[in-house]
Recover the amino acids of this structure.
């Protein structure tokens, strides 16, 4: 099942193979006054749908009722400019890509005193030898591989991918060497062209090991694609009329 955050802040729900026929939308309730969700993703520790607001607050979202429950606030105000989020299934941290190419990791709500702490992981830049080196990235969606809802601290390696809407490409993240924090995912490596025109309203999520889904909204409709992580090529699955999605989150399987 695929969930999406609409341009009007509602929660959309549909099947990947019969999206138009199965589509339902639900109002998201319980956010603070004036708060808006920037992005949503399923937490790999328990599988709850989670959203980050534009002012840096994390909420869980009931996938049936749309009720949002506050969990924790980010300790760093800059995370409030968040544009893209995704849970790292190996580290149990929330990757946050913000305005001005900033890159953070956020500790979600836990019983630990570190809940809400933020690590600044540097500026997102293309690898010096990459074909797009020197270009300013415009990342509008991101997702980690190997995402399952039964998180384990020793989870196997994961890879972070993102979509650049200016270049219409898929990129793979690697980490800069010292003195940057380990696991910073700040270096961008071009995988290949999407073959479609990405927009600001583009979503990306990965089901399980490497089953990738891409949503692109243009005008008043959204097109859902499967995505080849080795080449970047998008393959049409379906078009959903009268729906504009800002992001998508695929319900996590159990490993």
């Amino acid at each position: 099942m695929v969930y999406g955050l609409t341009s009007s802040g509602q929660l959309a729900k549909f099947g990947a193979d019969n999206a138009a026929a199965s589509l339902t939308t639900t109002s998201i309730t319980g956010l603070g006054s004036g708060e808006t969700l920037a992005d949503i993703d399923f937490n790999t520790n328990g599988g709850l749908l989670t959203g980050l607001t534009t002012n840096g607050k994390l909420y869980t979202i009931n996938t049936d009722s749309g009720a949002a429950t506050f969990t924790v606030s980010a300790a760093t105000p800059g995370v409030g400019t968040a544009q893209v989020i995704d849970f790292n299934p190996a580290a149990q941290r929330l990757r946050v890509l913000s305005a001005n190419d900033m890159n953070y990791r956020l500790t979600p709500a836990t019983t630990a005193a570190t809940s809400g702490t933020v690590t600044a992981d540097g500026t997102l830049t293309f690898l010096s030898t990459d074909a797009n080196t020197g270009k300013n990235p415009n990342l509008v969606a991101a997702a980690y591989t190997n995402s399952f809802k039964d998180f384990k601290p020793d989870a196997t390696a994961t890879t972070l991918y993102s979509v650049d809407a200016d270049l219409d490409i898929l990129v793979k993240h690697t980490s800069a060497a010292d003195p940057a924090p380990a696991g910073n995912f700040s270096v961008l490596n071009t995988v290949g062209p999407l073959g479609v025109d990405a927009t600001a309203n583009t979503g990306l999520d990965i089901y399980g090991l490497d089953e990738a889904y891409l949503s692109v909204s243009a005008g008043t409709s959204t097109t859902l694609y499967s995505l080849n992580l080795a080449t970047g090529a998008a393959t049409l699955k379906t078009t959903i009329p009268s729906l504009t999605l800002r992001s998508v989150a695929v319900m996590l399987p159990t490993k």
Q: What stands out?
A: The chain has a mean pLDDT of 92.
